[in-house]
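Input/output pair, single chain:
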Amino acid sequence: MKDKDKTQQNQINKCRSQMPPPFRRTYDKAVRGRSPSAGIKAYCHECCGWNRLEVTVCCCLGCPLYPYRPHQKRVKKEPDGLNPNNENPYVEGQ
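Output:
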């Protein structure tokens, strides 16, 4: 193993040992480099002190990951062609 690889692995092990166990799986997935969404999720959790609620209410609008942060409340959109009462205007006799 090269010195750079050893140094990186040591840093990963140190970070991993300092985080709460429920977050380690996502972190492991992120450091393998195969999941950008896991990387974003791990970063946001670490930034917010490993508190999922803090990620949800994050107000750091200047963060480049803000639009991609996990645990956002989803806004339900009305499907095209349906009015708010969920009646299809193109079907008679509803």
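DSSP finds four helices and no strands in the chain. Helices lie at 3-18, 24-31, 36-47, 52-56.
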